[in-house]
Amino acid sequence: MRLNKELKELKELESLQVVKPEGILTMYLNTDPSDPEQSGGEWKIQLKNSMNSFENYLKQSDDKEELDKFKKVRKQVENFMFENQKNLKKSVIIFASSDQSTWFAEILQLRVESMFYWQETPVLDQLKNLNQSYPKLGIVLAQQNQVKIIEAELGKIVNTELFELDLDTEDWRQFAGPRASTSGKNLQTDLFDKRFEANQKRWYKNLAPTLDKVAKNHNWKKIYLAGEKEEALDLASYMQKEVDSIFYQNILDHEESQVLEKVLA
């Protein structure tokens, strides 16, 4: 999710700093199954009623050209919801223009208030509030010879990377995406434990500049770190970037979505 770039473009539309599209739909839709008001999939009724309301208004206004433009957007939005109905979480946010110059659609694990707008400019209030409350962040999980990064934005995981220490060369190797765990727990022999204890500070000190670079390049607004107390404190102390919160728990092998929920709780 390239939120900063997309939000900048939407703000330009909001302030009419660029040529305005020919009609734009703003949709904030609550799809949270834990919400008592959504237990039966009521979002489908809300979506249909709101779309019908806009369409009926445009029919009564006798503006056939704008009505045709709205129908194009409606079809695009309804197709997206149909194709993703099994993947829905707590909300969906969509900005869609009739000339197809704007299309922003995100399924989020954050609740919104259902609101619909059809006008010349997007309505960004809820998106701005979410961006401020849930900025781009990095979670660094340390577990002996492995360090995992979970990157999230708007409460949604957007990237995962793993750094694993090559015990032969003592170099950290980087892997992108999910990877089967061969963590330090699996290497816990007396010999390994003694070697790790003797070299932990040096190994983490060597990795810290790489983590700082990732945080800078990816524009993290907040950094969270988790691991056994001594490991977490060592790694945090060697990083130049400020760590906002440290959890003294070994959770590298936990489900990534659960880790994110814990951090945001």
Describe this structure in words.
With 265 residues, the chain is α+β, with helices and mostly antiparallel strands. The chain folds into 2 domains: 3-132, Translation, Eukaryotic Peptide Chain Release Factor Subunit 1, Chain A, CATH 3.30.960.10; 134-264, Nucleotidyltransferase, domain 5 (2-Layer Sandwich), CATH 3.30.420. 40% of the residues lie in helices and 25% in strands. The protein has 7 helices and 10 strands. It has helices at 3-14, 43-60, 64-84, 125-133, 190-217, 229-238, 256-264; strands at residues 24-30, 91-97, 103-108, 115-119, 137-143, 146-153, 156-166, 171-176, 222-226, 245-247. Helix 5 crosses helix 6.
**Structure annotation, total helices:** 7
How much of the sequence is in beta strands?
15-25%
Low-confidence segments, given as residue ranges, are none
The CATH class of the largest domain, by name, is Alpha Beta
Which descriptors would you attach to this protein?
single chain, 265 residues, alpha+beta, Nucleotidyltransferase, domain 5, 2 domains, six-stranded mixed beta sheet, four-stranded antiparallel beta sheet, 40% helix, 25% strand, elongated
Give me the secondary-structure topology.
Blueprint: H1 3-14, E1 24-30, H2 43-60, H3 64-84, E2 91-97, E3 103-108, E4 115-119, H4 125-133, E5 137-143, E6 146-153, E7 156-166, E8 171-176, H5 190-217, E9 222-226, H6 229-238, E10 245-247, H7 256-264
Parallel strand pairs: 5-9, 9-10
Antiparallel strand pairs: 1-2, 1-4, 2-3, 5-6, 6-7, 7-8
Helix pairs in contact: 2-3, 5-6
